[in-house]
Specification:
alpha/beta, Heat Shock Protein 90, 2 domains, five-stranded parallel β-sheet, five-stranded antiparallel β-sheet
């Protein structure tokens, strides 16, 4: 069961709630889980939330708690926004009912990686927006629960624009383009330029080692660069700069990357397939930025 790149239509039901107290959390979470337990032909619902909120929900559910999968959100959201997409897609494939039927209560980790900087926030809002496209064909019901005490008003306002039930919903492609309108820092003048029509894995790996990446990380970074280059080629140039952990490679492609979901759609088989290099890059890199550059595109990969 793989997310598709279709328009944000039913059956995917992507909701949002905001809470600022224990009582407000339960006022939203408990009816949602009760709705899920009453839904026919569905597997047990999943509540992914802060441990303290899971305790509240468990106590409120009483004996019904045994019919709900309770997952600490620090165990679900363990990396980048792209990792969260992979986690969700994998869980649906393994556990959802026919057509993707399942209820998911999902509380992001705003006091962790997702909320540590404006850039992390932008990546998360992109994930929330693109989820409307990625999971559109699935009969999944998701309630994204935002703790206003951790997320803050600016993040909550941005997240509302990514949820169809809020009244301020924006087209996902338009919202993603708005996020991409923020310019990236220029490549430094001393960035290393790699020869050839595509970067060689050995050259990227050796460079990363000199910049302080551990051998395993250097190997992953080199693979991400070469797989991404293969997916978007031919290249006009490839530049390297930075120091561990934030090693950066910018690939400058001769043709545009027009698909806003490029690198977000999991391989149908679960295994990396030809043309899926951006998916691999998004899974192993902290950031992958795709921007239009004249008649072509730049794809910037930052490992850490």
């Amino acid at each position: 069961m793989t997310p598709q790149t279709t328009s944000p239509q039913a059956p995917f039901d992507h909701r949002m709630t905001v809470f600022a107290s224990d009582d407000e959390f339960l006022a939203s979470a408990l009816p949602f889980v009760t709705e899920a337990l009453a839904a026919p032909d569905e597997p047990p619902p999943v509540a992914i939330a802060a441990p303290a909120n899971l305790d509240l929900l468990r106590d409120a559910l009483g004996t019904d708690a045994k019919s709900v999968a309770l997952v600490p959100h620090t165990e679900w959201y363990t990396g980048s926004a792209a990792n969260a997409i992979a986690q969700g897609a994998g869980y649906l494939a393994a556990n959802a009912g026919p057509g993707g039927r399942i209820h998911l209560l999902m509380e992001p980790v705003w006091n962790g990686r997702a909320g540590r900087s404006p850039r992390e926030t932008a990546e998360w809002i992109r994930y929330e927006a693109l989820a409307n496209l990625l999971f559109a064909p699935l009969a999944t019901t998701a309630l994204c629960a935002y703790d206003a005490r951790a997320a803050g008003p600016a993040i909550v306002a941005a997240a509302r624009r990514a949820h169809p039930d809020t009244g301020v919903y924006e087209d996902p492609v338009r919202l993603a383009a708005e996020l991409d309108a923020v310019p990236l820092p220029q490549a430094p003048a001393d960035a290393q330029r790699l020869p050839g029509p595509a970067p060689a894995a050995d050259a990227v790996r050796d460079w990363a080692l000199t910049r302080g990446l551990a051998a395993a990380d250097a190997e992953l970074f080199a693979t991400a660069v070469t797989e991404a280059a293969d997916a978007i080629g031919p290249l006009d140039a490839a530049l390297l700069w930075g120091d561990a952990p934030a090693c950066v490679c910018e690939l400058r492609a001769a043709r545009p990357v027009d698909d806003p979901l490029a690198g977000f759609v999991p391989p149908p088989s679960g295994e990396l397939e030809p043309g899926q290099g951006l998916w691999f890059a998004r899974q192993v890199c902290a950031y992958v930025d795709v921007r239009g550059e004249g008649e072509g595109a730049s794809v910037r990969l930052q490992y850490g």
